[in-house]
Amino acid sequence: MMACLQVVTVFLAVSCCICQDSNAFRLRNPILRGPATALRKSIVDFHCMVERDRDDDRNLFYELYKVNDTQSKGMFSTLDNDQPEAKFPVWIKPTHEGYYYCKASVQNRSEVMPTYSSHHYLAVIEPVEGAHVRSDPSPHELFEGTTLRLSCSITKGSHVSYTWFFNGRPVVDGIAQNTMSVHNTTITDSGDYVCFASNAVENTSIYTSNSSTSITIKEIPREVKVSFTVVKERDGHYWAQVVCRSVGGTPPITFALFNNSEGIDEQNTEHLNATFLVPIDLDQHMGELMCQASNGKTPQHSSPMRLEAVRVGGALVMTYERIMDDNFQVIRLQFHCQVERGTLPLYRWFLNNVPLTMRGPSHWVWSQDNSTLLVDLNPTSNRLPVMVVAVVFGCFFFLVTVLTGCCFYGIYKWKHNPDKLSRQNGRSTEMDDMKATCISEGNKDCGENTSVAKEVGADDLEGEYVDEWPEIEEPWN
Ligand SMILES: *[C@@H]1O[C@H](CO)[C@@H](O)[C@H](O)[C@H]1NC(C)=O
Ligand SMILES: *[C@@H]1O[C@H](CO)[C@@H](O)[C@H](O)[C@H]1NC(C)=O
Ligand SMILES: *[C@@H]1O[C@H](CO)[C@@H](O)[C@H](O)[C@H]1NC(C)=O
Ligand SMILES: *[C@@H]1O[C@H](CO)[C@@H](O)[C@H](O)[C@H]1NC(C)=O
Ligand SMILES: *[C@@H]1O[C@H](CO)[C@@H](O)[C@H](O)[C@H]1NC(C)=O
Ligand SMILES: *[C@@H]1O[C@H](CO)[C@@H](O)[C@H](O)[C@H]1NC(C)=O
Ligand SMILES: *[C@@H]1O[C@H](CO)[C@@H](O)[C@H](O)[C@H]1NC(C)=O
Ligand SMILES: *[C@@H]1O[C@H](CO)[C@@H](O)[C@H](O)[C@H]1NC(C)=O
């Protein structure tokens, strides 16, 4: 019985001892610490340690490995060192980038299973250098509507991040690492683009390199238009002064003038317009003019325009409307002048043979190329016989149009002053070749020289009218 008990005790003691021993032999996993980034050609330290009980005094053996690399990057034995923590200095090369782990084992006890740390990534930083922005397409000028692509290359550097700036402001859209793109560009995309490349080691050392490029987005000419005026030379020849213009377009622009789709002339200009002189004959169809504007991309065309200079001619009709107030009192007369032939005639109005300014206290001429005259009637004044006479001249002005007629409006006593009107007529020397027929309300013919005249009798005007018109100084010329 005693022996039996002894055997059991010994067995328990042994088994307990084995049990204790096997507990002690189970190593915990080591913890690897180290930098996440390291500068190339520098020395960084990795640290590895197994957490142990205070009374555990066995010597441990540590090794540092890179994943997929059989050769250890360092060894450390607590036997040779006082510190409990292993330290592995590593001289960093570009190939050192990758995952690391450390292995811990009990010194000279190969039967104890070694343990391993989790992986730790080390990025090897090569300071960025030599950033350079390139645009694609490579010319730094491109047309609106196209796509601008910029790429930033570097001569050196790893783990580089890129920031793009446009005219000093960070770009958010269309960036992907070292490239950026702007689709469907407009002229507002012209400016300076900067690529800012940077990398850093452990937030402490920051390396940067930047490069900028200036990009010009060229605008294509828009809304090309052709127009002409007629110029009379002293020798009696007529010229069409043809103006081609576009609304936008980055200069230089080449304007080409076509007659019936046959090129006549071409001009390269820094402006948005060009002027061509084309000899013409009056009253003849001289072809269809068309302008083309181009600054390198698709040429833009104007719509065709008939080149024809027609003299003033035919009848001139003057009409008027009464404008009444709420009490059906005529307060205003609105005269209209209409010539039968001629393109956009110029109208001038006269009162008692005195030219009217655009605006006066009692009248208002819309504009010279508008045939409307407004006359205010003063209800308090005496009712007077009123006669309205309109005269048309043809003349060429430096205006957008071929043909200019002049409508003279006068309120005066026609019978007393017919010569005065003729004198006005004669003063405008350029108008001599224009003829028109006069139509009065009574179909009164005013004669060829007087061109067109129209008179309105006092009885036609139901309002009352001030005979006293203001002095108008500006002479008709
Ligand atoms: C290690 O090698 C294996 C197989 O060769 C591969 O699948 C794995 O991606 C590699 N790991 C690293 C971190 O390179
Ligand atoms: C432990 O092993 C190392 C080699 O791993 C050897 O150099 C050393 O002599 C051994 N120490 C003892 C006490 O066995
Ligand atoms: C490009 O932009 C213009 C105006 O900015 C727009 O009219 C046009 O539809 C755009 N084209 C495309 C393909 O997005
Ligand atoms: C580096 O910066 C990041 C974010 O700014 C921060 O989370 C990290 O702790 C920093 N690392 C060091 C070593 O300072
Ligand atoms: C850009 O690079 C130039 C040298 O190339 C440097 O003088 C300038 O300071 C840099 N700009 C920034 C914002 O880092
Ligand atoms: C043409 O453009 C220039 C400059 O913009 C301007 O001075 C000139 O008046 C224009 N000519 C015509 C005929 O529009
Ligand atoms: C335009 O071409 C036609 C023939 O196609 C010609 O008769 C006419 O004189 C030309 N006009 C000018 C302004 O050159
Ligand atoms: C003259 O101008 C006025 C005001 O703009 C307009 O109502 C009228 O139709 C114009 N008349 C002509 C003949 O252009």
Automatic annotation (TrEMBL):
Keywords: Disulfide bond, Glycoprotein, Immunoglobulin domain, Membrane, Signal, Transmembrane, Transmembrane helix. InterPro entries: Ig-like_dom, Ig-like_dom_sf, Ig-like_fold, Ig_sub, Ig_sub2, IgSF_CEA-related. CDD domains: Ig (cd00096). The chain crosses the membrane at residues 386-412. Pfam families: Ig_3. Residues 1-19 form the signal peptide. Residues 114-216 form the Ig-like domain. This is Fc receptor-like protein 5 isoform X3. It comes from Clupea harengus.
